[in-house]
Specification:
Layout lengths: L2 H14 L2 H18 L5 H21 L3 H17 L3 H10 L3 H10 L3 H10 L6 H21 L1
Helix pairs in contact: 1-2, 2-3, 3-4, 4-5, 5-6, 6-7, 7-8
């Protein structure tokens, strides 16, 4: 959808009195606006993605559907990831019960201790191949740090 279509959807849901769907349309519009901000405009881009992430979290708090909650918190996490707000990415993925994504994000961004913590705490919810990869690198990293001491 383009910006105009999001505006039309927001207006339609507003006219229908559907507060939740209006909020969802507004969150998606906020994300599209954020995506249009050039990376060179760091502050404006950060603020735009923060607004979009907050809007998705608001939608997640409003819904009663587990699937929609997961989708909204996941979208918020991806907005935070765009601006490298690591703690917020992990928090939102956890709220979405997307533990494999949280662990993978930490691993990919050199947050090995946090990745290990996630796979220990949410062992049953993290995909086995992700766990094994993180464990292997963690073993090597911890062994190497012991050798350096």
């Amino acid at each position: 959808m383009n910006h105009r279509e999001f505006e039309e959807a927001i207006l339609a849901f507003d006219n229908a009195g559907d507060v939740y769907m209006r909020a969802v349309a507004a969150a998606y519009q906020s994300r599209e606006v954020a995506r249009d901000v050039p990376e060179s405009q760091t502050r404006r881009r950060r603020e735009a993605f923060m607004n979009a992430a907050s809007a998705f979290e608001y939608c997640a708090e409003m819904t009663k559907s587990t699937e929609e909650l997961r989708n909204h918190y996941g979208a918020a996490a991806r907005c935070y990831a765009e601006i490298k707000y690591h703690q917020d990415v992990v928090r939102a993925f956890k709220l979405a019960s997307m533990f494999t994504e949280a662990a993978s994000y930490c691993f990919d961004h050199n947050l090995l201790d946090t990745a290990v913590s996630i796979i220990k705490k949410y062992d049953a919810e993290v995909k086995s191949e992700t766990k094994e990869c993180i464990k292997e690198v963690a073993r090597l990293s911890y062994l190497e740090s012991k050798l350096l001491e």
